[in-house]
Amino acid sequence: VKQQGGNSLIFYTEDMNKETVRRLEIEGSLRKALEKDELFIAYQPIINTQSRELSTCEALLRWNHPELGLIPPTTFIPIAEETGMIHEIGYWVLKKACKQIKEWQNDGMPHLCVSVNVSAHQLQNNRFIDEVKSALEYSGLEARYLYLELTESAMLKYASDTIEMMRKLGELGVNISIDDFGTGYSSLSYLKNLPIHHLKIDRSFIQCFRMDSPDFAIVNAIMTMGHGLGLNIVAEGVETKDQLTLLTKIGCDFVQGYYVEKPMQPDQFYSWHQNMKVY
Ligand code: C2E
Ligand code: CA
Ligand code: CA
Ligand code: CA
C-alpha cells in the first residue's frame, strides 16, 4: 500500500505487479522479435458460400516467444500500438503476406486474395500509403488481390485523416473491409462516402446465430443494408454447419471460421488447399 498525498490510497496487488513485469518483458522482447524471426503469420481461409471455393485468406500475426511460448495478438498488438512498434510490425506483415499470396497464386491458387489487419495507428501515419505501394511492388501482387481490414472503431478516430487515407488506398486499387462490423457504435454515414468493399460481421453476432435468436434479426439487417450499398458480406467465427447453412440461405457472401478451418501455418495452409473438402 502506497500513500499518495491526502487520503487517497493506491493498492498494489501482487497480480498487478506480475502483470506490469510481464508487460515490460513483452515490450522489451517484442523489439527483438522481428530480428530474431519469432513472428510469423497464420492464414485462415475465407470461402465463398455459393461456390464453396476458397476466396481469400486472412493474415493473422503470431509470436512464438522463446520462453513464454505462443503469445496471442490480443496481448502484444496493444503493446505494439502503445510503443509505436506497430508501424514496423504492420509493414512487415503487409510485405510478408503479399509475398506469400503471390507465391501461392503462382503455385495453383491463381485468384487467391489476402486480407491484412491494419491498426488505426497505422492509418494515421502518412507513410502508410507508400508502405502499401512498396509491399505490392516488392511482392508483385496486384492491388485488387489485397484487402485491408479496418475496424469500425478506427473509422471514428481522427475522421478527416482517416477518410483521406482511405481515398488514397481506394485510388491505389486495394480493397477495404470493415472488420468487427456492428460493434463500433459509429455512425453509418461513412459507408456511403468511402471506398469500402466488404463488411465483416463480428463473431459475437454469429456465436448464437439461429433462426429464432435476436442475432438473426441483426445479421439479416446488416446483410440487407450491405447489399443495398453494393457491399459483400463476410461472416466471421462460423463454427457449425447449421450456421453456414443459415448464412448461405440468407445471402451471406463469404464465411470464415473454425467450421471451415482454423488459422494455419503457411505449409499447412498449402496442403489444406490441395486436399480441400466440400463444405
Ligand atoms: P480479428 O481481426 O477479428 O481476427 C479474427 C480472430 O478470430 C482471430 O483471432 C481468429 O483466429 C479468430 N477466429 C477465427 N475463426 C474463429 C471461430 O470460428 N471461432 C473463434 N472463437 N475464433 C475464431 P486471433 O488470430 O487471435 O487474432 C485476434 C485479433 O488480433 C484479430 O482479431 C486482430 O484484431 C488482431 N490481429 C491479428 N493479426 C494482426 C495484425 O497483423 N495486425 C493487427 N493490427 N492486428 C492483428
Ligand atoms: Ca480481422
Ligand atoms: Ca474481426
Ligand atoms: Ca475481432
Automatic annotation (TrEMBL):
<feature type="domain" description="EAL">
    <location>
        <begin position="23"/>
        <end position="277"/>
    </location>
</feature>
<protein>
    <submittedName>
        <fullName>EAL domain-containing protein</fullName>
    </submittedName>
</protein>
